[in-house]
Amino acid sequence: MASPQLRCSRFATTSRAYPRPSVVTIDDPFITETNDTKKYKLYQKRKRLSSMSSHLSPWPTYTSGQTILHNRKPCSDDHRKQAGSWQQQPPGTTKPRYLEQLENYLRKELLLLDLCTDSAQELRLQPYREIFEFFIEDFKTYKPLLSSIKNAYEVMLAHQKEKIRALEPLKAKLVTVSDDCNKRILAMRAEEKTEISMLKKEKMNLLKLIDKKNEEKISLQSEVTKLRKNLAEEYLRYLSERDARKILIADLNELRYQREDMSLAQSPGIWGEDPVKLTVALKMTRQDLTRTQMELNTMKANFGDVVPRRDFEMQEKTNKGLQEQLDSLRDDYKEVRKEHEILLQLHMSTLKERDQFYSELQEIQRTSTPRPDWTKCEDVVAGGPGRWQILAEGKNSDQLVDVLLEEIGEGLLREKDFFSGLGYEESVPPFLRFDGVVENKKPTKKDVVKLLRDAWKERLAEEQKEKFPDFFFNFLERRFGPAEAMAWAYTIFENMKLFRSNEIMSQFYAILMGERSESVYIKQKETTTELLKEMTSVDSQNEGLLTMEQLRTVLKSTFPFKKEEKIQELMEAGGWHPNSSNADLLNYHSLFIEDEEGQSVPFVQKLWEQYLDEKDKYLQELKQLLGLELRDEVTLPKVREALMTIDPKLDKQTLNSYLSQAFQLPVTKLPEAGEPKEEGIVTLLQTALQQLQVADIRRVGPREQEPAS
Q: What is the separation of C-alpha 400 from the centre of its chain, rounded to a whole number of angstroms?
């Protein structure tokens, strides 16, 4: 193998043998200049280096370990130190001229770049690429190998850069998902912390209750011990007293015997008796004494520890009371223990339910359908985002679906030119009985609302002799003529059936189809008219303004049976807020305005909603009082009695109208209260409630308060 000096000399000789190329190409993915410009710049730089160096000389063997340039930033201190060290070369070593030229060129290029910023770090590779290109072009023998090495590094750099770019969105998504998960975990921990704190408080309360019961038990045990001690002391005292009494009785007997002996000895008649007889009597007496003494000892042995019956009964009574107290305490302790066990079981079941609910929540969150993005409808609905915001204001998802269906249906309705007749069957409404094809007049929504308003005006002006469907068709004949009346009837009917969210159309449709009585609409209009009159009478200055306190007074006087929260809802719908003052002024005429499409302001809508709620509660109260199922039959007397119970202020005329509506009988054919044929009038409870739901049902007076128990 050749030495390093020989290889370097061969390398230099080979480099001098080949002519220098005039154009150099650079394959750099980070340079955005055109190929011609890059080739021209590289050619100029190599031309300058070629003019400075005419030959290549080998590098000394003893300096082969020195590095040309360290991989440091040109603007750093280490780079300046190293730059200074290049100028302080040992005096005995000289670098090849071409190597010095390459180093100077590399140093100048690195100094020109601002490598202190991170954004320019990719550009620092460009000078090194150029130097490497020079080597490749100058050393023709190794050009294929060096080119393959360079291309391999360039491909790897490009691959790593593409990989980094592909991982950037994943990193951002990972951060977002991590934040979302952390928020969920914190929320769940907060809920669990609250629940745990509540359970801990409940546990502490139970522990306090148990401690209290234990203290009571200990106090009772100490009292029992004290009573036992007192009983023992009393027993010892009674024993000592008994012994003292026995000794005293023995002493008394001894004294009595001595006194008898003395009296016998002093008696003159005794000396005359027979000594043998006296001896026998004395012997017998001593035997009796011995026997009595034995009996006395037996009695002492048998009944020495016996207490008096009175004391025994007293102590037994006391002991029985204490035993009862102890038994009750034991029962209380058992109940508390059972309650504690039940609470523990309830706690465990609650924990299981919580875990189950949490898993269900996770499953629901994983599988639940996301809420619809209603903003997508802005570009579909006619009128753009502005009209969609007006249509969607204050509506929930179900109402928004109805609005969207109305918008879609309106477009389909306008595309339809003709309607098919429904025939002459009994199920078809009278004003739609036609066989054939009728024309779709395609009116606007405003035109339909205006036509219905005119119909209501004419209906309210006449005596209302004919039925409402017949009146409607006659009105169309008078307005458009007999030839066009049927086409307009079908057109208006289809519009009313489509726009169910419109108040005028929905109420008119319900009355036409028999779902609601026209008296409901008339009474509602009369109520709003009366309310406006009351407000006008309160407005003494005739300025059209009322204070909130005046509005509250008018509402309470007009609706005396409404609760305070209902009055509050009406005031809030009129524009009053809880934070505002009662002295604020309100333009009360604006509470009764309707737009061109028949939509009223929130105040009138709230009045209508409260009326429907009050009617539902009234009928629900009637059903509860009857105590029957919907499929059960109910008689007229029961309904009469229930109505008078829930509404005692009902007059006879109103009561008869309610009964007539419920049982579908004319008022003239209703029997009087107490008549026998009253019991024969029967109907289903469900049918009666449905018929009452159609009519104008409202409370006449307050219900009497039940006596307090």
A: 22
Dig out the tokens for 468 from the structure. 């409402």
Q: For residue 427, give the nearest of 341, 513, 525, 318 by alpha carbon.
A: 513
Q: What confidence score (pLDDT) does residue 74 get?
A: 41
Section 516-544 average pLDDT: 85
| Cα distances (Å, whole numbers) of residue 641 to 650, 671, 702 | 11, 14, 16
Looking up tokens 């969207």 gives 404
69 close to 124: Cβ distance less than 8 angstroms: no
Looking at this protein, which amino acid is placed at residue 384?
A: G
Q: Helix 397-415 to helix 384-392 angle, to the nearest 10 degrees?
A: 130
Both tokens of 222, joined, read 């100490």
Percent helix, strand, coil in the chain (nearest 5)? Answer: 70, 5, 25
**HSE value, Cβ hemisphere, 13 Å, CA-based, for 404:** 16
**Helix (H) / strand (E) containing 167:** helix 143-266
Alpha-carbon distance values, 591 to 163, 453, 486, 532, 576 (Å): 66, 19, 37, 9, 12
Q: Which tokens is 243 given?
A: 């012994």
Model pLDDT, residue 318: 92
Q: Measure the CA–CA gap between 547 and 543, rounded to whole angstroms.
A: 12
| Neighbouring-strand partners of residue 594 | 600
The b-or-e profile of 437-451 (16+ CB within 10 A means b, else e) is ebebbebebeebbbb
Task: Report how far residue 63's alpha carbon sits from residue 86's, in angstroms, rounded to the nearest whole number.
Answer: 13
- Give residue 207's pLDDT: 93
| pLDDT tens digits, 311-364 | 888 888 999 999 999 999 999 999 999 999 999 999 998 999 898 888 888 888
Please give the CATH architecture assigned to the domain spanning 521-614.
Orthogonal Bundle (1.10)
User: Which tens digit of pLDDT belongs to each residue from 677-701?
Assistant: 777 788 888 888 888 888 888 888 7
Token couple for 195 = 């629940």
Inter-residue contact 546 to 538 (CB < 8 Å): yes
Give the pLDDT of residue 120.
61
CA 592 – CA 528 distance, rounded (Å): 8
Rounded to the nearest 5°, which phi and psi values hold at 70? -85, 155
Contact (CB, 8 A) for 692 and 640: no
Q: Which of 544, 522, 526 is nearest to 535 (CA)?
A: 544
Closest by CA to 50, choosing from 101, 121, 86, is 101
Determine what percent of the chain is predicted with pLDDT higher than 70: 80
Q: Which of the pair, 273 or 337, is modelled with greater confidence?
A: 337
Query: In angstroms, rounded to a whole number, what is the distance separating the alpha carbons of residues 479 and 335?
Result: 84
- Greatest mean pLDDT among 19-33, 400-414, 636-650 lies in 636-650
Q: Over pLDDT 90: what percentage of the chain?
A: 13
Q: Please state, in angstroms and rounded to a whole number, the distance separating the CA atoms of residues 358 and 344.
A: 21
Return the number of other C-beta atoms located less than 10 Å from residue 151's C-beta. 11
Rounded Cα–Cα distance for residues 314 and 543 (Å): 94
* Helix residue ranges per DSSP H, 380-481: 384-392, 397-415, 445-461, 468-480
pTM of the model: 0.47
Q: Are 586 and 668 in contact (CB under 8 A)?
A: no
The helix/strand/coil state of 502 is coil
pLDDT recorded at residue 118? 52
User: How far apart (Å, rounded) are the C-alpha atoms in residues 695 and 657?
Assistant: 10
24-68: per-residue pLDDT in tens?
Answer: 333 443 333 444 555 555 556 555 555 544 444 444 433 443 444
φ, ψ for residue 594, nearest 5 deg: -120, 140
Worst-scoring range by mean pLDDT, 120-124, 185-189, 403-407?
A: 120-124
pLDDT of residue 204 exceeding 90, the answer is yes
Q: Domain locations in the chain?
A: 4-59+69-81+92-141, 521-614, 627-709
Residue type, 105: Y
Distance, CA of 217 to CA of 334 (rounded, Å): 12
Q: Is residue 649 a contact partner of residue 702, using CB atoms and an 8 Å limit?
A: yes
